[in-house]
Amino acid sequence: MIPSIIGLASILKLNDRLFINALENIIQEQAKERLSEHNNPINWLSNHIVWGRYEMLKLLGRSNEINPYTELFKNFKPYDEDIVLNQIEYIKEEWNKVGLLINDALETVTEEQLAEEPKSVTPIGVPTKFGSFSFLVWHENYHLGQLE
Length: 148
Prior knowledge:
6 helices; single chain; mainly alpha
């Protein structure tokens, strides 16, 4: 693993466990509930977090991995109660799957790949794949905090 991503990789490793812990004992009916009209429900958040992991894979050079959540969150689509979201148990399986892919990608990505310009620049403002990857790690932590 290249030195520049060791810290971010450590955060993602911790999040592997925290995500599953946050969903422990959550039943589907609870996952649909919103605390208020300003909060996203657990099922939206968990689907969105897994979407982010697939986006990380692209930045780490795994563009052959198709993000099955692209349409669900296309153009920063907000929560819509009429959209059918994946069940919690399915999300946990997807999380474990994408987690293994991320771990492998973290071991093989190069500094040169991370220095490339991404297709779009994130709010962090660093116009490299490393900058976008760093933003997505922060983004994951932000939403993971909402799950907790």
